[in-house]
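Weekly sync, protein design subgroup
Attendees: M.S., D.O., the rotation student, P.L. (late)

Item 1: inverse folding check
M.S. brought a backbone from last month's batch and wanted to see whether the design step gives back something sensible before we order anything. D.O. pointed out we never logged the input encoding, so this time it goes straight into the notes. Structure tokens as presented (211 positions):
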């Protein structure tokens, strides 16, 4: 009686192996392309988030410093004054405060360099402090000062009002065909804009006696 022969299993042919490799390569290529796209999207979102946070922080600094501006007598040389490119004031909200809370004179200056604008911050005190608060590309920057009547001034000198009601930082596109729109940073001092009236002194006395 003859033993039954068990058929031997056949291997893959060369054509089948090549087809399998080609399909595997296509799948790996699609997977790598998808991963690369996902990484690009994540990087773009991360950069956009960081840029947005930086812009919000710069605006917050601008608002806070101006919110602390105080009405000062013109004789003190620390009163609020400004023009289209710079302003100065005595503020209680400095960006780099000392150990003890105190006021300091600050100056903000707009510097135009070719197609780029910079907002410089300068603080007077025990140590002179200078920093770049913000920068923009493709814009022209200038300040405007709003008085009690709501009128915008290009220059602020102390008069009946010691402080403007609002300070605008206008960012206008430098090119007429730019897709960017005009942007306005708005800040308002919290202090009363009117100088406090001095109490009347008895005849023969002056405030210079108390200096």
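Designed sequence read out in the meeting:
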């Amino acid at each position: 009686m003859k033993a039954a022969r068990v058929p031997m299993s056949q291997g893959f042919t060369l054509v089948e192996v090549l087809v399998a490799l080609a399909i595997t390569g296509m799948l790996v290529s699609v997977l790598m392309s998808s991963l690369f796209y996902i990484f690009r999207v994540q990087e773009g979102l991360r950069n956009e988030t960081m840029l947005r946070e930086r812009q919000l922080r710069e605006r917050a600094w601008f608002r806070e410093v101006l919110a602390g501006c105080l009405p000062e007598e013109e004789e003190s040389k620390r009163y609020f004054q400004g023009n289209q490119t710079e302003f100065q004031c005595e503020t209680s909200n400095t960006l780099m405060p000392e150990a003890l809370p105190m006021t300091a004179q600050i100056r903000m200056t707009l510097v135009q360099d070719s197609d780029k604008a910079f907002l410089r911050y300068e603080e007077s005190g025990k140590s002179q402090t200078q920093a770049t608060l913000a920068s923009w590309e493709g814009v022209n920057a200038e300040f405007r000062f709003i008085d009690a009547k709501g009128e915008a001034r290009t220059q602020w000198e102390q008069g009946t009002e010691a402080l403007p009601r609002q300070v605008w930082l206008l960012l206008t596109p430098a090119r007429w065909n730019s897709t960017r729109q005009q942007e306005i940073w708005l800040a308002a001092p919290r202090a009363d804009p009117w100088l406090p009236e001095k109490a009347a002194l008895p005849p023969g006395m002056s405030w210079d006696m108390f200096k």
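Discussion: The two ends are 134 Å apart (CA to CA). The helical segments are 14-67.
Action: P.L. to compare against the previous round before Friday.
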